[in-house]
Inverse folding.
């Protein structure tokens, strides 16, 4: 039993996370205090939500490159709406942001599931389209802090019991989708389709529905995240969430989600998100130029994917060897 | 015996290359009616400067997609090559030949690295080159930060800006035409080309028929690295400076051109003629949109839709053709 836990990917990640925190706090005493940890959690909350969506997409052996653009378009749209019609209640704006994200994600999902275009091509295209539309709806201008009401800006910051709404939303999102993937029929079918598409068709899984679902859900999450993003940073601009795609993919593959689809756990993704959050925060704490961030994330993805692939192959060999016995 | 029959006219008209050609004509007509400056030979020759670098990468990308692979790291390779050329010229005062060598060598080495990881460890090209896109550009950011290198020698400018002799034909364009002819011959007249189609259609069958699939895929990635290095040399020479964000977003346009040219995204089909017409069409379309002042981000909307349409149209045409064929055979 204990041996099994030791061998688990999540355990290794957890040890790595603790190790990193110890190393960084030795270098920078400012790192290890409650205020900074609250910052890290708030910073990674947005990443955690979208990473859950990306997780579902990668589970069906897809990839979503349009998440950053979806966040930007949904965020810009609701920010503009709020600027010109401040009388609309925040509650309605929250629903609207989810609805916008839902439509964007559904467009991706329909192209993938009904028309059979590979996810990477669809989302490469819609990344350009959605990002272009951010520019079109805003006319290239920004929505900045003084154009947003206090109620709007306080949406992610407010909270109760010392937990910000932002963090609360992320926790809720992770729990809901974690349960969805592990305990519902549609969730298990997502794993099935990713594991073996042809076999899952034979056992009667509705492939079209299961291939549509992850993109639609990711879009809806991105819609809400878009609103929280512009409210938290109190600005909406054309390049909001640029490069966010990469972080969500990195979080998933670091968390042990297989790029071939069909395997990965919610806990792994969560640990992957936290690991990235700690690294990003630490870079500024120990005075490493932010220019390192992009290259470092690329490297992290590459190394994680290589390790995942080698580990998977070893497991498969082990299974084959056991069968021969 | 049916194959000796003359092809019906609608069958020829439904060839993707013919449809592309009509689309090209439409782009030219629309553009010249929108702006009087469009239909001018000098203008058109000058505008080829804006897309020959992309066109050069389109050629090896065609090989890669025919093999059912993909490379989205090309823009990152351009940035890294340009960055190393910048370092060499700024700190070592390298001359033009040395700069060209460094640019090509960087591209080739990065391509070899991609190819090794993809074929030796067996990781999907999407994952490796996606990480590579950010890793390579990220290294350029680490080295250059927010600085720009502009210390290139004067003779270096000829590659990207010069014209052949006293004519107005750009050197770049001639280079591209030569490369396109070579790639066309390799694709359609050599065993290497036949092997590419075989791998794209069914890589397992190709392996069983004695084709060294991994070696060819590896060679493709090395090749696209080398030509991305070449594109980087030309681009750096044309704009005369290096910034880490150079050529960002090019992967979208390059892949769009390839699939618009009729190369099936799941591999196995494609022709050099379609791809060359597609290059001209996208290049002139961008030029036309530029003439009527469409901003770059809005052009991306058009490119995105074009990419999706480019995949849907040839696919549904192919289905239609095979339906008609089976009907004919039944008769």
């Amino acid at each position: 039993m204990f041996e099994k836990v030791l061998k688990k990917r999540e355990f290794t990640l957890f040890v790595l996370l603790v190790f990193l925190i110890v190393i960084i706090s030795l270098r920078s005493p400012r790192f290890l205090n409650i205020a900074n940890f609250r910052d890290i959690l708030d910073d990674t909350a947005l990443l955690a939500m979208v990473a859950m969506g990306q997780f579902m997409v990668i589970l069906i052996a897809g990839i979503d490159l349009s998440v950053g653009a979806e966040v930007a378009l949904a965020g810009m749209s609701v920010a503009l709406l709020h600027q010109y019609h401040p009388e609309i209640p925040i509650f309605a704006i929250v629903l609207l942001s989810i609805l916008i994200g839902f439509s964007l994600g559904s467009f991706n999902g329909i192209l993938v599931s009904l028309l059979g275009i590979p996810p990477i091509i669809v989302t490469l295209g819609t990344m350009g389209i959605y990002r272009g539309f951010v520019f079109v709806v805003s006319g290239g201008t920004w929505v900045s802090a003084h154009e947003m009401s206090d109620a709007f800006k306080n949406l992610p910051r407010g909270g109760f019991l010392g937990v910000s709404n932002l963090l609360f939303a992320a926790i809720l999102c992770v729990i809901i989708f974690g349960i969805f993937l592990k305990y519902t029929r549609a969730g298990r079918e997502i794993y099935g389709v990713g594991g073996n598409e042809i076999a899952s068709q034979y056992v009667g899984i509705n492939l079209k529905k299961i291939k549509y679902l992850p993109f639609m859900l990711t879009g809806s999450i991105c819609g809400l995240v878009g609103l929280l993003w512009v409210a938290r940073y109190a600005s909406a601009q054309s390049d909001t969430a640029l490069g966010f795609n990469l972080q969500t993919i990195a979080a998933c593959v670091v968390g042990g989600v297989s790029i071939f689809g069909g395997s990965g756990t919610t806990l792994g993704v969560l640990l992957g998100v936290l690991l990235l959050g700690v690294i990003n925060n630490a870079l500024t704490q120990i005075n490493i130029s932010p220019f390192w961030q992009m290259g470092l994330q690329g490297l992290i993805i590459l190394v994680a994917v290589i390790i995942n692939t080698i580990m998977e192959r070893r497991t498969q060999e082990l299974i084959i060897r056991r069968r021969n016995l | 015996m049916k194959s000796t029959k003359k092809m019906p006219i609608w069958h020829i008209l439904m060839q993707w290359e013919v449809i592309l050609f009509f689309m090209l004509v439409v782009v030219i007509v629309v553009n010249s009616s929108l702006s009087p400056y469009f239909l001018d030979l000098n203008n058109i020759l000058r505008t080829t400067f804006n897309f020959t670098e992309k066109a050069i990468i389109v050629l090896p990308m065609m090989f890669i997609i025919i093999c059912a692979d993909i490379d989205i790291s090309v823009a990152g390779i351009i940035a890294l090559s340009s960055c190393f050329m910048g370092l060499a010229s700024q700190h070592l005062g390298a001359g033009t030949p040395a700069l060209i060598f460094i640019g090509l060598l960087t591209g080739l080495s990065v391509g070899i690295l991609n190819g090794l990881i993809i074929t030796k460890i067996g990781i999907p090209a999407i994952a490796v080159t996606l990480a590579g896109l950010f890793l390579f550009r990220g290294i350029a950011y680490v080295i250059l930060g927010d600085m720009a290198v502009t210390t290139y020698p004067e003779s270096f400018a000829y590659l990207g800006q010069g014209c052949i002799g006293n004519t107005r034909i750009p050197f770049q364009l001639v280079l591209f035409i030569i490369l396109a002819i070579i790639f066309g011959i390799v694709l359609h007249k050599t065993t290497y080309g036949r092997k590419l189609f075989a791998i794209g259609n069914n890589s397992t069958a190709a392996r069983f028929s004695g084709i060294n699939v991994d070696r060819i895929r590896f060679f493709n990635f090395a090749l696209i690295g080398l030509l991305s290095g070449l594109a980087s040399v030309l681009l750096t020479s044309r704009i005369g400076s290096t910034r880490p964000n150079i050529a960002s977003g090019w992967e979208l346009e390059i892949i769009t051109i390839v699939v618009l040219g009729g190369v099936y995204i799941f591999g196995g089909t494609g022709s050099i003629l379609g791809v060359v017409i597609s290059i001209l069409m996208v290049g002139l379309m961008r030029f036309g949109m530029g003439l009527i002042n469409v901003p770059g981000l809005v052009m991306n909307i058009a490119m995105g839709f074009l990419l999706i349409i480019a995949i849907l149209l040839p696919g549904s045409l192919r289905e239609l053709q095979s339906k008609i064929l089976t009907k004919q055979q039944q008769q």
The two ends of chain B are 14 Å apart (CA to CA). Residues 296-330 of chain B form the longest helix (35 residues). The CA atoms of residues 184 and 272 of chain B lie 5 Å apart.
